[in-house]
Amino acid sequence: MESISENAFLIPSEKNGAVLQLVNGRDQVFGSSLLLTHQNGLDHIPWGPEDNQPNKMARLVEQNNQVRPLLEATRDMIFGTGVGFFNQVHEGKTTHLEPYMDERLKDWLYQTELQNYAIAAINERVTNANHFTRFEFTPDGLPLLSISDGFTTRIGRPVANKVQHYLQNSSFGEGWGKTGQSEKIQAFNRADPKRNVVSIFHSREHISGNPFYAFPSWWCSRDWIEVANLIPLFHKSGLKNGYNIKYLIKMPKDYFDQEGGRDLEPEAIRKKWASFGENLKTWLSGVENVNKSLLVRYLRADDGKALESIDVVPMKNENSDDAYAKVWEMANISITNAVGILPVLGGVTPGSKSGDSGSQVRTVADYQQHFRTPVQRQILLEPIQMALRVMGYKDLIPAFKEVQLTTLDKNPTGKQAVVNHGA
Fold first, then answer.
1. Are 222 and 54 in contact, with CB atoms under 8 Å apart?
2. Cα gap 338→60, rounded to integer Å
3. Residue 144: strand pairing partners
4. Is residue 236 exposed (0-12), middle (13-18) or buried (19+ Cβ within 10 Å)?
5. CA 62, 371, 203 angle in degrees (round to 5)?
6. Cα(150)–Cα(144) distance, integer angstroms
7. Measured on CA atoms in the order 138, 141, 147, 151, is the torsion positive or negative?
8. What is the C-alpha separation between 414 and 405, in angstroms, rounded?
9. Are 117 and 143 in contact (CB under 8 A)?
10. Is the pLDDT score of 107 beyond 60?
């Protein structure tokens, strides 16, 4: 990519080049202000400044032992015991949900693998805050749902400010100009769902300033994730090579200036210093050389005192293990809060060890399910609601069935799960 001006870039190509121009109106957070104006240029909305934002965050996660389990804990809280179907029953001034199932629904559940679809959709949502549902109609008009991976899916260039299609390409995220041919899939049409045999339904919440792609809150903790990722590397290197500087080695500046009573050339002196430094580094570092002694031979002057030679002074490590442990704990607490899991459920208890008794964990788990999942579930269930309407079930309510832990007097082992059929 070659710069033409401050806001314009040229992407060369053997056949058709493209002009890249900075414009307003792109996603402001984890988004891109890039738009290709050439007719043969970029045909989709970039996800991130380099069109690889999901890939960048995934690389952070794969080096971290905390984020993925937290995302899985969030997924489990949302999923509960899976998706069920309910009729709304009105009795006087009260309303409750009653489970519903018929043979047609059973067949659809089997064909579309609904529970697996729901798990995949939740994983996409907690990871990238966007999930793309692929609607594919069978010859008899049955809508089958599947997930289009966010790493390989992009929003097509809008027409008259309206998204009309999406693109799938296994090369998305690998850099500009490397995508090749993409598969174009029409956007789901609410007014006429069966217009296209295959279509994409994009689910996300509106975030101010981000008209195209949403982002999960934990992406905002990327700096803390990077800090947490550095700590294991620091300890790994420390265990192999020793923590911090162990020795201060003092030597006369002219130590290698002479050899056999004659002055050496500058190049010969440089080589001697380089060779000595490499040998010393090899000897003092590494697992095999820990806690060894260094023997220094020196000459004595006529007065019996040692002449200037190599002086090796051990250095005291002022940083204790507690200092690193505190940084690790701070990073984990920050990441847990950013993911949206309460610290106790994330295995992190700030301050003291209180708050992790069985009854308290049970209360926190109920709170997490009831108050931290409704918005997530609403967004996740919308494609399923659309599919039910297409099938003629306009009054049927899909809902995630929760898991409620009983108290110990009713459940002595504490292992029995009780399904709460509320939404």
1. no
2. 15
3. 136
4. exposed
5. 60
6. 19
7. positive
8. 8
9. no
10. yes
Name the pLDDT band for 413 (thresholds 50, 70, 90). very low
Tell me the H-state helices in 242-396: 266-284, 321-339, 358-371, 374-390
Collapse the DSSP code of 208 into the 3-class scheme (helix H, G, I; strand E, B; otherwise coil) and give the result.
Answer: coil
Distances (CA, A) of 176 to 121, 173, 185, 319: 28, 8, 21, 45
| Adjacent-strand bridge partners of 258 | 263
pLDDT averaged over every residue in the chain: 82
Sheet (strand 18-22) strand order: 2-5, 8-11, 18-22, 34-36
Token pair 């080695």 is found at 249
CA distance 209 to 369: 29
Nearest to residue 128, comparing CAs of 59, 63, 215, 58?
215
222 Cβ contact list (under 8 Å, min separation 6): 57, 60
Contact in structure between 294 and 281 (CB atoms under 8 Å)? no
pLDDT tens per residue, range 341-386 = 887 887 776 555 555 667 778 888 888 888 889 999 999 999 999 9
CA dist 285 and 297 (Å) reads: 21
Q: Whole-model pTM?
A: 0.75
